[in-house]
Amino acid sequence: MNVLVLNGPNLNRLGKREKEAYGSFTLPELEQELVDFSDERGFELICRQSNHEGELLDWIHGADDEGISGIILNAGAYTHTSIALRDAIASIRVPVVEVHISNIHAREQFRHHSHIAPVAIGQIAGFGKEVYRLGLEALLLRQQKG
Hints:
DHquinase_II; 18% strand; five-stranded parallel β-sheet; amino-acid biosynthesis; 5 helices; lyase; 3-dehydroquinate dehydratase; 36% helix; 3-dehydroquinate dehydratase activity; Rossmann fold
């Protein structure tokens, strides 16, 4: 099993921005924890981050051809604005789990709507960095059930 973890805009600023919402951990620290988790479970993890919508689109499009088994996606602010990301997810066979470190439904009104949710297999929000591990667990369970 190969899983792609995609982080969108501003997630490279983890540990520096709005610590009350996002915590004090950095993206490299988070990615190392996820790689350690995947090593323990015996699957490959590929972590990528971009502040550019087109790059995220290219990675999503490539998932079908690269043998990716699942995607964990934190699209950041693109969650609420990007029809292009929604359409990219709808165009692939790879299951996508949408994750958010903060509870987007308890924050500003504009964060309550997700264009990603209708085409993802599920959404996990509000549990800090654990949303990534929970998303990976969900993909593993889905894989086991076939």
